[in-house]
Amino acid sequence: MSLSLVETVSRRIITLARHHSSDRLPTERDMSAKFGVSRGVVREAAKRLELQGLLEIRQGSGMKVVDKLHKPLSSAVNMLVPDEKQRLYQLTEVRLALEPENARLAAERAKPSILKKLRGAHERLMNCRDFETQVLADMEFHCLIAEASGNKIGALLMQSLSDLLQSSLSHGYRLVTKDKAVADHYKIFMAIMAHNGNAAADAMRKHLLNARNDLTLKNRKLAPP
Amino acid sequence: MSLSLVETVSRRIITLARHHSSDRLPTERDMSAKFGVSRGVVREAAKRLELQGLLEIRQGSGMKVVDKLHKPLSSAVNMLVPDEKQRLYQLTEVRLALEPENARLAAERAKPSILKKLRGAHERLMNCRDFETQVLADMEFHCLIAEASGNKIGALLMQSLSDLLQSSLSHGYRLVTKDKAVADHYKIFMAIMAHNGNAAADAMRKHLLNARNDLTLKNRKLAPP
DNA sequence: AGATCCAATTGGTCGGACCAATTCAAGTAT
DNA sequence: ATACTTGAATTGGTCCGACCAATTGGATCT
After folding, report:
1. How far apart are the CA of B155 and the nearest CA of chain A, in angstroms?
2. Which of A22, A54, A136, A160 is exposed most, by the fewest CB atoms within 10 A?
3. CATH 1.10.10.10, domain A5-65, yes or no
4. For chain B, domain boundaries
5. Nearest nucleotide over every DNA/RNA strand to the B58 CA, judged by C1'
6. Is A97 close to B93, i.e. CB distance below 8 A?
7. Residue B53 and residue A40: Cβ atoms within 8 Å?
8. Within 7 Å: CB of B1 and strand D?
9. DSSP string, B119-167
10. What is the pLDDT of residue B219?
11. Vertex B74, ends B70 and B75: CA angle to 5°?
């Protein structure tokens, strides 16, 4: 069972990306010459990697190495549940499963460096003046907790959920007020700092229940589906 | 911000797939003529859909519509955590978060038709004679519970986890003995049938803790990472 | 120094040719 | 009549050179 040429070239691009001093890759034409294959094969291989979240490709500009392995899941969820309200409810249910455990594991495992980042995100949320910054800080807080859990798969899931949530929030949906989020995040943060797994998990659960109960679109509270 | 031709053709292929009487799609050459684009564009569009888990493509044979939206996540997780033992441990942690909630929601929401399927999977596990059938029935049981929860996103995550687990199990890893799995699944099933969410979640949690504690490779019990 | 312009560069698309894998109809053997 | 084999047609995989669309960076102008 031999690999297709495209598969082989995909792997060579990954290797190249890992050893390249810049985040910029050679052009399609250069790689075609370098690997001894047609430009179409390079193109197809690069497109695979783009879809997998490993490259970003711009016409006229070239290819850039990125690390966004969560992107395919975000796309899949969008396709699976096209209705945004439904999607938000289901995302919140999944969050109610995942995030209390993230918080518990973070309380047990978090390193000082990441706790520092977490404090930074919390402070950015407290101090923010515009909605966009609020959303970014809020989601960053949650992603850092997932990262602090030490479970890479959980962190990838959280990054994807975060992207999806950000997209909905930019379409007018609202989960919780800033004040409630700040208060809830503070409790979560303090429990993690105190290495109290149960308290962290409980605080996260309450935060997400608040989010579910307060779901609004354009200042209109939504009924559950 | 206009769509690229490839993106446009991708969407047209999806529409075609949804309205086509067979699960077989027209050839690259036919779609090229039908859509008025070059064969390269059709090819690239089709490859996108293949990577997204919506098509399967075979040289000499053509394209088949499938529904495997979970595949991109499985690939991403494989890339993220290449080490299989690490991956299994992390998968089990994620399962410990997700699956008790799946079981709880299944207890609240499951319809008779899916409970019947669940019973079927349980019976297949009880009666199986070979390891491969055991694995399939075991994973099917878990995926049906996720489906019974009514949360499509949770079900997609579970399908992906299931694929990943099956892959590891085919490489020699073992999670629990068949007898333990049968006994644990029975408790989960009975709690779901009784619409007792808490009992279902507890039974699932215990089952997964057993799985974590019993992780072996080639009859050798593994230490946690 | 900052703004504008434009040619070079890079990705996107096209079409025709040829190669590799699969399918199925026709022919052969039992 | 049934089972097996063969080979041509079909379908996807790759190649090549040409041309189109978007971006970049150097040159020029203010």
Report:
1. 10
2. A22
3. yes
4. 5-65, 71-221
5. D12
6. no
7. no
8. no
9. HHHHHHHHH--SHHHHHHHHHHHHHHHHHHTT-HHHHHHHHHHHHHHHH
10. 73
11. 120
Are residues A57 and A47 in contact, defined by beta-carbon separation less than 8 angstroms?
yes
ipTM over 0.85: yes
Question: Looking only at Cα atoms, what is the longest distance across chain A?
Answer: 59
Rounded CA separation B53/B55 (Å): 6
Q: By CA distance, what is A87's nearest residue in B?
A: B153
Matching residue, tokens 């410990």: B96
In this complex, the residue of A73, A97, A151 whose CB is nearest that of residue B73 is A73
Successive 10-residue mean pLDDT values, chain B, 225 residues = 86 91 90 95 96 93 92 93 92 96 96 95 93 92 97 96 91 85 95 96 95 81 71
- Residues in B touching A52 (Cβ below 8 Å): 51, 72, 75-76, 79
Is the domain spanning B71-221 CATH 3.30.1390.10? The answer is: no
For tokens 């049938």, the residue is B193
